């Protein structure tokens, strides 16, 4: 029996030793109980640090990346809408489009009103610059040669051009090529000459009269001589 007891004793001692060694090698968990405190720098120090940082390189790059047109539109968007976002940019583009369209329409209307066709459609000849409503006397009693020579003597070449033009209207009326009326326009008289060979020549002297009398075109003695020659040539043509 003794040998078995000895064996049991040895086995028991070994098991106890193993269990003790295992208990000694088991890791022990330690918890940190230190309290962490958050320290924030003073606001004055934050301001000083932000002022000390040189951000000029970033500003330079930003300005170089944005074109002059983008800077202008951003400024305009901020001024008009308070914000330069995508929706406001689209709205601004439509505003530009409508401004250009309206300006183009107004320009076309203005140019049309200045054209001869526009004057024809107006139909209100009393407001035309080409009327002679201030001529009170009967044209058949006007001494055109005397009027023209007197204006030339006074170096009033604009007035001389006006009497020259009125004389051609008188001659055309005498030949039944036009119907003289004080309030008719040069376009009205041009329409009277639609079937006449003198239509283009009449438009030429009408343009001279317009530039000199209503456009206040400066006329000296030399310029008047060349202009008077065109009136004389027209008079010779209609007198044939």
Explained architecture:
- This protein has helices at 2-25, 43-52, 56-65, 68-81, 86-114, 116-122, 144-153, 157-174, 186-192, 199-214, 221-238.
- With 240 residues, it is mostly helical.
- The longest helix is centred in the middle third of the chain and has 29 residues, at 86-114.
- The radius of gyration is 52 Å and the shape is rod-shaped.
- The relative contact order is 0.06.
What can be said about this structure in brief?
The protein has helices at 2-25, 43-52, 56-65, 68-81, 86-114, 116-122, 144-153, 157-174, 186-192, 199-214, 221-238. By secondary structure, it is mostly helical.
Distance between the termini: 173 Å
Helix tally equals 11
Structural class: mainly alpha
H/E element sequence:
HHHHHHHHHHH
Q: State the shape.
A: rod-shaped
Main β-sheet: number of strands, strand sense, barrel status? Answer: none
Q: β content, as a range?
A: under 5%
- The radius of gyration is 52 Å
The overall pLDDT, averaged over residues, is: 76
Percent helix range: 55-70%
Note poorly predicted spans: 119-130
Number of strands: 0
């Amino acid at each position: 029996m003794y040998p078995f007891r000895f064996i049991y004793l040895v086995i028991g001692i070994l098991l106890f030793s193993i269990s003790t060694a295992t208990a000694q090698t088991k890791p022990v968990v330690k918890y940190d109980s230190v309290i962490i405190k958050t320290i924030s720098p003073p606001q004055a120090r934050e301001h000083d640090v932000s002022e000390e940082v040189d951000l000029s390189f970033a500003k330079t790059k930003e300005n170089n990346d944005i074109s002059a047109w983008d800077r202008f539109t951003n400024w305009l968007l901020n001024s008009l809408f308070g914000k330069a976002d995508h929706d406001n940019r689209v709205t601004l583009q439509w505003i530009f489009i409508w401004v250009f369209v309206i300006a183009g329409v107004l320009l076309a209307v203005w140019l049309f009103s200045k054209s001869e066709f526009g004057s024809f459609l107006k139909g209100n000849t009393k407001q035309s610059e080409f009327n002679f409503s201030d001529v009170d006397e009967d044209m058949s009693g006007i001494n055109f040669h005397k009027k023209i020579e007197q204006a030339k003597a006074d170096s009033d070449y604009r007035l001389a051009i006006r009497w020259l033009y009125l004389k051609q209207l008188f001659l055309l009326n005498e030949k039944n090529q036009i119907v003289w009326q004080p309030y008719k326009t040069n376009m009205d008289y041009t329409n009277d000459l639609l079937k006449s060979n003198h239509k283009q020549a009449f438009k030429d002297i009408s343009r001279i009269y317009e530039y000199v009398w209503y456009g206040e075109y400066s006329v000296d003695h030399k310029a008047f001589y060349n202009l008077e020659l065109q009136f004389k040539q027209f008079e010779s043509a209609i007198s044939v």
